[in-house]
Amino acid sequence: MTSLNFMFEFFRAGSSILGMNARNLTYVRPHNLSGAKKLADDKILSKRILKKNSVPVPRLIAKVSSISTLEKFDWTTLPESFVLKPNQGLGGAGIVIVYAKKKGRNDAWIKSSGSILTVKDIKEHVRNILDGAFSLSNSPDIAFFEERLKLSSELKPYAYRGIPDIRIVIYNKVPVMAMLRLPTKESDGKANLQQGGIGVGIDMATGTTTTAVQGKSKIVEYIPGSRMLLRGIKIPHWDEMLHLAVKAQIASGLGFLGADIALDRDRGPVFLELNARPGLSIQVANTAGLKKRLERVEGLDIKTVERGVTVGKNLFGGEIEQELEETSGKKVIGSIEKITLHGKNTKKIEVEAKVDTGADSTSIDEKLACELGFEETLNAFKKINLADYGEISEKNADIKTKINDDYSGKIPDLENVTIAWSSSGVTIRPVIKLTFEMDKKTIKTKVNIVDRTNLKYPMIIGKKNLHKFLVDVSK
Amino acid sequence: MSNECSYNGQEMACVLQKIMEQNVPLETVTILLLFPIIATIVVILRQVIGMHAFGIYTPSMIAIAFVAIGREDANNIKYAVAVYIVVLFVGMFMRYALKKLRLLYLPRVAITITIVTLSILALLTLAGSLSRTGFVEAELFAILIIITLVEKFVSVQIEKGSRTALILAIETLLIAIIGFYLMSTTTPIGIKITDVILRNPYLILLLIPFHIFLGKWTGLRATEYMRFRDVLKKIQ
């Protein structure tokens, strides 16, 4: 009986998933009219339309539309690196990526695989493109050269050879679901899921990655063969990407759009491609149903790009943080947090503190310590002639014990001293007992006092006080 | 429905008997009437089950070719499958063999067809020497239809890669075999279906409302329940 129930629930859950039938009949057919579809299939035209609507695209270098232009083409005009594409190519077929010019030669380049590409090779490839070898039903096509995007440093560690891109599905001006697509060794540097690339689901509100899938349905946690965790990657320029995707939808007239956006090292988010028939694997990457989300934004009256982005973030985001807090029992905090410090004589001071997982212990600024009532401690500590204890260095570890022996109990509130190696050199700092509140949790601890007048925040919170929290650096 | 007429001992609707009397062969009428049923099978396997195959035309034509080859004896279908597999292997092999030459699309397909044809000829000779008469006498046009599969195969190989092309080819083969068993007058189910259709040819019109229903159906396909099983488990 329970297994029957399970089956029933299983099939009922199917109503929140978008299948091929529903995608074609309910979304693609009525919302992507043939004119808009033609635009999506014409890369040069979509480039022009998007650019006009202030959506950044890879720069067009040159196009070759006939054999006679090919014969007359001046090959010296091609830059060091470029991408050669068929205008109406399908699924990345017929694309040649060139990384650099062959040294000492004006008519040869080096491909991503390291092999040489001569003018003769290019001409032949262009001829194939013109002949329609890569276009739908082999109709004659146009070849074009465009700027090669450069891998951004933020995503570099996650990509094998090729360039990762971000797919965002937009419906009714609202971004509804997104995934990061990573090229892998298996996919031969292509960010295509069907060829073994990795798709990583993205939380719409924060742009942080959630679950991941390799190929069509294999759930993965790490980049294969490495310890690179796929969860929790913060996508740089997330908001800008969402804006670009919505803008592109409005400009293209595609009601149901799969927007592909890449991140260039120098230019930031660059719009790659309009997709009139977005794939369904994005649901596996996000372990969430697209149909349910599409139904939620159906019929909403969205007037501006800004509004669409906000609605998408509000409706389809935030789950990740809640989920993390539930499963770990830990609170998620940002890198800068508001802290309430309990001073002596029940005095409370609110400050902004930097959360630093690189620091061991927590420290506060001298001025702040004074405000909290530790002026006496600080002044007394400063009177100690540290030179009496020899050179302050890593070798001289018993300096701490000696100072403690001499002053413990003599200076009010002095709990301990600590030797800290920081960017400003080695210092001996007084340690006091302090209570503070962070994100509604009260922490009783020992903190050291240091001069932080030239630093932005009067307090840093170190690892010792962070075991009840998870730090989200994007927050 | 009227089923009181007959022709050559086969009971059938009187309208069909009239057609036969105009010297239209029984076989032609049967295959023509079964064609919409094959198309229906392809549609169901695609829309409801989720098998892709090479569209609707290729699997239907190959199923018909199988029916023609298995007309005398259902066992002869193994020769049809052999031809099919040879076509696939040669198609795959030629892709790698011709890669270096970097030819334009049509000449490349033409070379592939040439090699496929020669291979089939060799296969026929081999079958003849082993006295496999069922194969040697197989319908010429049926074999030609299977050979034309190679163009579809090569173009999918170029557009979507060898793996996808192979999967689609296997799905097409499965659909064609299913179609064969449902239609061939030499298989038990096939005889029945043919019998029913010959007696009630108007039944095929009922397929139209069925296709209208399927054409508006937006449910998940069986293979999609498989593909999204992890998502489904999480959602429920």
- Global Rg of chain A: 29 Å
First-residue to last-residue Cα separation of chain A: 46 Å
Oligomeric status: heterodimer
Low-pLDDT runs of chain B: none
Number of helices of chain A: 13
> Helicity level of chain A, as a percent range?
25-40%
Helical segment tally of chain B? 12
- Give the SSE string of chain B: EEHHHHHHHHHHHH
- Widest sheet: strand ordering of chain B: 1-2
Main-sheet strand order of chain A equals 11-10-9-8-7-12-13
Biggest β-sheet description of chain B: 2 strands, antiparallel
CATH architecture of the largest domain in chain A: 2-Layer Sandwich
Instruction: Please tally the β strands of chain A and state the result.
Output: 22
Q: What class, by secondary structure content of chain B? A: mainly alpha
The general outline of chain A is: elongated
Please write the CATH class name of the largest domain in chain A: Alpha Beta
Descriptive account of the structure:
The complex is a heterodimer of chains A (475) and B (236). With 475 residues, chain A is an alpha+beta fold. Chain A has 13 helices and 22 strands. Chain A folds into three domains: 16-40 and 151-321, D-amino Acid Aminotransferase, Chain A, domain 1, CATH 3.30.470; 59-146, no CATH class; 331-471, Beta Barrel (Cathepsin D, subunit A, domain 1), CATH 2.40.70. Chain A has helices at residues 2-13, 20-31, 34-41, 43-52, 67-72, 119-130, 238-252, 282-286, 290-297, 305-316, 319-328, 366-383, 399-407; strands at 60-64, 82-86, 96-101, 108-111, 116-118, 143-146, 165-171, 174-182, 198-202, 209-214, 218-220, 256-264, 268-275, 331-333, 336-342, 348-355, 363-365, 416-422, 425-438, 441-450, 459-461, 469-471. Chain A has a seven-stranded antiparallel sheet with strand order 11-10-9-8-7-12-13. Chain A has a six-stranded antiparallel sheet with strand order 1-6-2-3-4-5, with helices on both faces. In chain A, helix 7 packs across helix 10. The radius of gyration of chain A is 29 Å and the shape is elongated. Chain B has a two-stranded antiparallel sheet with strand order 1-2. Chain B is an all-alpha fold. Classes of the chains: A alpha+beta (475), B mainly alpha (236).
